Amino acid sequence: MTMCTPSRTRRRLHRRTERGFTIIEVMIAGVVLAVGLLAMMAMQIAFIQGTSAANDVSVGTFVAEKTVQRIEGEAVNWNSYAPNLGGGNTPMLNALTSNGNIGQWTLLYGGYPVTHEAIPTAPAMAVANPASRELNARFCVDGRADWQVPGRVLVGQIRVTWATNQDAPWLTTPPSPCAESRMTDVVYPAGVANTNVNVTYIPFVLRRQNL
After folding, report:
1. Angle at Cα 23 formed by Cα 17 and Cα 28, nearest 5°?
2. Whole-prediction pTM
3. What is the DSSP letter of 114?
């Protein structure tokens, strides 16, 4: 009868604890790690895209609100000096209410896209490359107005349009007018919102004060 001494038992346990991982275990661990890394990368990409989209909405809303503020500023001249909304005192109001434009979408800022600060591009401004967001004014601004009370109360809305892929189709070298931004078949083809174009609206109401 053979008896195991304590030292022999310890040596056997020591050999067991020195066993490494099998190739299958290593492969499984690698697959799990790769899946985890891919999931993290996908989450990061989705986060970046969501942040960019949210920033575009903020910029578009800011441009629309700034345009409304300019129109409201012009309304002071409408009250005081330009009762018929004509002349150089009310250029935006004049554009929105000129013959044939009432109730129709009308391009503002000369018809050219604007920057994130609502500064229109000059026709001679060359677009360096699609990555130059400061130069690429991607936001097209138009508006419509209707008389609620003829000559007294004007209601309307400003619309800002931009491409969701950050490469607006109306950008060329030099930038082209924003004619596409107000075309139904671009913004709402067949009555369905175009997923490649995003739009924000800001309403306004102007009341002419008694002189």
Report:
1. 105
2. 0.69
3. B
